[in-house]
Amino acid sequence: MQRLRHCSVFARLPFTVAQSSRQLKKPVPLVSACSGFGSVRWGSSGTDQHYHNSSRRFRFRYALTGLIAGTGAVLAYGLHHSKAEQASASVTEPLSLPIYSQEEVTKHRSLENGVWVTYNGNVYDITEFVAVHPGGAKILLAAGGALEPFWALYAVHKQDHVLEILGEYQVGVLRAEDRVKAAADPADPYSTDPPRHPALSVNSQKPFNAEPPPALLTDSYITPSALFFKRNHLPVPLVDPKTYRLIIEGLPGGPASLTLDDLKSRFPKHTVTATLQCAGNRRAEMNKVKRVKGLNWGISAISNAKWSGARLTDVLHHYGFGPDVASTARHVRFEGLDSDVTGTAYGASIPLNKAVGEDGDVLLAYEMNGEDLPRDHGFPVRVVVPGVVGARNVKWLGRIVVSSEESQSHWQQNDYKGFSPGTDWDTVDFKSAPAIQELPIQSAITNLADGSSVDRDTEDLTVRGYAWSGGGREVVRVDVSLDGGKTWHVAELQNCEKGEEPAPTPSPGRSWAWKLWEITVPLPEGEEELEVVCKAVDSGYNTQPDSIPPIWNLRGVLSNAWHRVKVKVK
Ligand code: HEM
Ligand SMILES: Nc1nc2c(c(=O)[nH]1)N[C@H]1C(S)=C(S)[C@@H](COP(=O)(O)O)O[C@H]1N2
Ligand SMILES: [Mo]
User: Fold this and answer.
1) 3-state secondary structure of 291
2) Which of 16, 30, 230, 474 is the most exposed place for a label (fewest CB within 10 A)?
3) Which residues surround ligand 3, an ion (CB under 5 A)?
């Protein structure tokens, strides 16, 4: 009976999608709709406003759909309307459904224990739907929790027919008190941290450090801010934009103080698409070779965003930077408004020539992806230093100092440096190595997880990922191998959202953004296991080292060996 239920949903789906929106090019056969993850493409079934614009006008809409389609299937579909209405109904309306606590819902987060989700205060058991979900296994990311934050990212769900499907699976309503978030403990310095997206995989809760699941990372060229990796050393400071001041020191005429409005109104606004990568990205792989110290980052401590703000060089020149200062200054230091119990602020510096260079593109950014910077990413102002390690992109920027010396902060002097594989914690001398600035060439596979498996009957295997290099060096090629590096294929590169016009190539040395890449290759016959590998090449013909041991270092930074993923063929 259970099986019948979800099959009936799909028996009518092609009609609903195709005929109510009149956009499906060819009918979707039921077999393919049920054949597994990601295999169904229903196209972007756009909405015909006159009958898709309100989820509450069901009766009207059904009548209209019936007229357009004129099929029995659509009439049968109308029988489901009462459940569908519950999907969009508020729980304040009387319902004779059981009430569940969030705790109970959270217990159901696997196919074995059942997959439950909540939406608008209602509880759904979607276990039967998982295998036929057009968006594939991604649906499991919401298991045990709310759909809202995921549907906010995947607008394809903002259609009535999706709510109707969901309505089929309602099993109850969420307890009233669980619909309101529990109040935080005010004594906890992290109690005022902002809310975060539940899809993030958390490496440390306090301070908050998290990365998106690899499969979501390359779903879009510009990483949605909610999914952008987050790397905080301290609690997120609460900054009032009205009283915010940015102090600038080390220039003639003494310290300057700018308001947020000064920054926005006195200087032209520039937008730069730039990838940020933490020095510790892919540390987990290094950790497997030999223990290292640090957060166990996977392959997603890297993300790409559109940053807007004033150019640092414009601001420094406005406040008196010139040849006199340049004759003695060597560095520009940044201090955050986040500080530890001793009052020590996060700090870092970059070379002066990067800060004031015509082509440096360093921004005092107040927007990320067209909106105010989110609190986790430095609200109200952060410095964005394209091509340079994440650690120098100081968030919640409070002070800029033009100086003959580097930042003396712990993170500039005693961390974020690379060492020989032979150096250990007894012998390390942090003064002996330069602070990491530009990062080396990097790439990784995002759509295949190590240890996962592919169906033997699959004809073609698609491999997808990202590639990026520091210092503005453009990624010029990505090579992919299915046999551990014996034979290679060249992947297709993409510098914009899928389906959009490619972005113009930046001038040399100013390629700040990553490229996504993809390749589809015939699945080799007779193999039990594949070792899928990728490596990228940049405009300086730098490429990635083939293995980790020669680049292993005690802090687990600069982990950029060929990314290797073992996949079983079953
Ligand atoms: C019970 C919960 C869910 C239901 C009922 C559902 C239903 C659907 C439906 C009907 C479509 C096809 C829409 C169309 O093209 O008209 C779809 C597509 C999609 N869904 Fe979901 N979904 C759910 C949860 C999720 C979650 C949690 C995610 C992501 C984390 C997700 C990701 C996607 C993606 C990426 C697509 C587009 C697939 C493609 O075009 O290839 N879905 N979903
Ligand atoms: N003030 C401040 N700035 C900071 C940090 C911080 O903890 N405090 N972390 C740095 C590190 S190590 C990285 S990798 C990036 C991460 O930026 P994101 O959280 O916007 O991804 O911010 C950098 N800037
Ligand atoms: Mo970092």
Assistant:
1) coil
2) 30
3) 231, 278, 390-391
- State pLDDT tens for residues 150-193: 898 887 898 899 999 999 999 999 998 888 654 556 678 899 99
Tell me the average pLDDT of the chain: 85
**CA 67 to ligand 2 center in whole angstroms:** 57
Evaluate: CB of 133 within 6 angstroms of ligand 1.
Answer: yes
Tell me which DSSP letter residue 157 carries.
Answer: G
Distance CA 260, CA 242 (A): 8
- Are 335 and 387 within 8 A, CB to CB? no
pLDDT at 549 over 70: yes
Residue 164 buriedness (CB in 10 A; 0-12 / 13-18 / 19+): buried
> From atom 28 of ligand 1, which residue's Cα is the shortest distance away?
139
What global pTM score does this model have? 0.79
Name all domains of the chain by residue range, CATH numbers in brackets. 2-179 (3.10.120.10), 246-427 (3.90.420.10), 442-569 (2.60.40.650)
Q: How far apart are CA 211 and CA 200, in angstroms?
A: 5
- CA dihedral 494→500→505→509, nearest 10 degrees, is -60
Is the predicted pLDDT of residue 260 greater than 80, yes or no?
yes
Residues near 406 by beta carbon (within 8 Å), at least 6 away in sequence: 330, 331, 333, 349, 412, 413, 435
Alpha-carbon span 270 to 308, nearest angstrom? 5
Any ligand 2 atom below 6 A from CB of 232: yes
In whole angstroms, give the CA distance from residue 569 to residue 137: 19
Q: How many CA atoms lie within 13 A of 186 on its CB side?
A: 0
Give the closest residue to 65 by CA, choosing from 8, 10, 24, 18.
Answer: 18
Kindly state if the Cβ of 233 falls inside 6 Å of ligand 2.
yes
Tell me how far apart the alpha carbons of residues 567 and 455 are, in angstroms, rounded to a whole number: 10
Sign of CA dihedral 387, 392, 397, 400: negative
For tokens 């600035």, name the residue: 437
Sign of dihedral through CA atoms 34, 40, 43, 46? positive
Secondary structure of residue 70 in the 3-state scheme? coil
* Cβ 42 under 6 angstroms from ligand 1: yes
Please report how many Cα atoms fall inside a 13 Å half-sphere around the Cα of residue 378, on the Cβ side. 29
Instruction: Specify the DSSP class assigned to residue 497.
Output: S
Give the C-alpha separation, 516 to 468, whole Å.
Answer: 9
Tokens coding 509? 């040395």
Tokens coding 43: 């196209």
Helix, strand, coil distribution of the chain in percent, nearest 5:
25, 25, 50
Active-site choice (12, 231, 510, 555): 231
